[in-house]
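Researcher: For the annotation table, I need structure tokens for Carbohydrate binding family 9 domain-containing protein. Please keep the output clean. Sequence:
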Amino acid sequence: MAQPRSSLICARAFSQIFSAMSLTCTLRCFFLLLMWGVGTGLTSAQTPAASTSATPGPKRQLQAVRITEAIKLDGVLDEAVWQQAPIASDFIQQRPNPGVPEKHKTEVRVLYDDAALYVGAIMHDSSPDSILHEITQRDNFGNTDLFSVFLDTYHDQLNGYNFTVTTSGVQLDGRYSPAGGEDFNWNAVWDARTSIRGTDWIAEMRIPYSAIRFSNAPEQLWGLNFARQRKRDNAQFFWNEVKPAVDGFVNQWGDLRGVRDIKPPLRLSLTPYVSAYVNHNPLNAEGTRRTTTSFNGGADLKWGINESFTLDATLVPDFGQVQSDNQVLNLSPFEVQFTENRQFFTEGTELFNKGNLFYSRRVGATPVGFYNVAVGDKEKILRNPAETRLLNATKISGRTKNGLGVGLFNAVSNEMYATVRNEETGKERRVMTQPLSNYNIFVLDQSLKNNSYVSLINTNVTRAGNTYDANVTGGLFRFANKKNSYAVDGQLVYSRRRGQTFGEATPIDDRDGYKYKVGVSKISGAFTWSLSQGIESASYNPNDLGILFGNNNITQILDVAYRIYKPFWKVNNFSVFSEINHSLLYKPTLYQSSYLYLGANTTFTKSFLQIGFDFDTDPASHDFYEPRTFPLGKYYVHLPANTGFVLFANSDTRKKLSYGVNVGNRTFALDDRLGRPRRIKYLAGFYPRYRVNDHLTFRYSLDWSIVHNQIGFVNGGLSTDEPLDQPFMNQILLGRRDVATVSNVVSVAYTFNNRMSFTLRTRHYTSNVRYEDFSTLAPGGQETLVDYRRNRDNTYNAFNVDAVYAWWFAPGSQVNIVWKNAGSSFLLADEATPQYFDNFNRTINTPHNNSLSIKVLYYLDYLTFKRQK
């Protein structure tokens, strides 16, 4: 009987990887000896063994006490009722020495009434100066002690809440989920007060039921844990032991009992905003205003549909104050993925991130026709907005008492137009660059026992008119055994496109595609591994609402890791990990690449200096994407065998002056087919931070890299009609180039108190490209040097300043004053220069766009109004 095609592919893949790799016996022996030594000789220092075992510790229980009198939130705990509640104590260290009982006791009590949960904690210490208390912005960790409360309100051991307060009263909150991990972008409206009394510090927290979701059961059973960070020792302790060798976090919490006869409240809040902008752009077209003003208004709405589900909506949103994107020179065949900074798209989106099918920057992105505005003779583009205006966005999400998570996301963006003016007549006309568009996501996620789940997700983009629509549907699963030591997981996704490319009359070519991935892994214990295989078909395309850099792949990956969690010798911990990766082109089935990766890191016991390295070696590979020709397979750029490494170190962040540093190198084998010199890359990074005091901190980051003799795409096919390129119009043109890139970021943060701060961030980025020679590319990766005389050298500069004053004047209410300064330049041919300070001076002296804005948000809670009546 013939073997299944997938089995043949997998077998051939792993046979090719070992035959293709040019590893020396020394490297193989070194790796085997390292794994053997770590797994035998070093583990003898691990005592007690229970603290690093892969078996979860026993579940503790705490009884909450109902109260009838009011609690004054002042960080004192002087009400008599606090003394009547049972005490949670005897915390267990999780790092740096797992399993060790706390030396300085922590005492926690829990009260509740019909409106909120109250948590009071006393953290005993040795002396007042052992209690560190740097003041930071909300949701930012600093050089400070802290106390955390964790709640799993549906007791599914998968999803949970985090409410944290530092010694200075700075609040942090987050969510936990299998899809999102630890997500501190989530924000809730709650309150906390702290105080320092002698050698103790005290935290008093009020968590209203409107901040969490729970069932309507007469008696609640919630997962519960507490954590304390004692920054003086860089130590973290948990009430219910959290073992680092056990897979999962929420499943290692204890239980909160005794909460009875509470009802999920009507969760209804409105946060209206008003904003005003003054924008000055000296580069505006002639005849237009250089300085403009605008006034905006809208609101965010939260409505608890029932005890499980919440609707979040933003009406006429304004995202003009978010941090500027880090613009870069992109020479790759793939788009740049930017960080999402808009709060609505970062908060409470864990369900929508299942399967990595949602890239939120697609919503409100650059209009699809931005780069293809058709202009006639004697016409020029007057205005062409680079961002699509959102009309509204809505999320409905929640989880039932049976563990079924449901999510629905919808957003509508407006039509966008460019304005074109005839320079002779002055007549203006509008050209559509984006049709009215609707973005939709639907998710079902069923939590199962043993930290397992099954999920279904669908994303859809519908555009007005004949512009194509896109639909992606995926199924995911993860099943772990009862001991939570092994798991299998998988994903199957189908993509579909129908319609016409924007601005064209012909239907799109890419229609239906699929992706699958299946894997098996050992997930708990000191030694872990995973083995997976995946395929992305040649027409699989989720990029209308997701992001995928390249399809048409068959990939096999083997990961192996070993970790020592207990201190030994002079270090706190040690981790070593490796990966074997092999990739084929799916259609036609051709070899792409393979590599072996090896990395390790450790932290020293006394100095808390972290050091580590990353090393990989890759045999010769074929880059089918760099030639920019489709369908893939006929052309590729040959990459010689290469080896790379990075060494890094991070100093103790408790000190006033701390730093991070890395250096690396990648060296390619000599490719003498055209007599070219060897390709080589150097990189370095330096990241110092100086904390002047508990209020003021300076940070600096420097990233530098230079690549010599990189081979990259210049132009090809019918992609250009420039006269000097006519001899090469029907050929793919590659260039050998040197690329030098420098990025500098300077930031200052001054925190007045736990509700008011000022931050200033300045970034300068420059990348210079100089070409040495050119070649044409033939099928099969063959290159031929050509006499190409067009100067393709270029330099890109980007400069940004973001200054933000933020004041949380009431719970959920905020005033932001933001100044932004932005400028960039793209220099070609003889104007391009590799001199850094020439680029910096040119960037500074180039006219910049300046924007000053003020935005006021005010949180209105229905329950607050109801109590005041």
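Researcher: And a one-line annotation?
Model: Residues 42-257 form a domain with the Immunoglobulin-like fold (CATH 2.60.40.1190).
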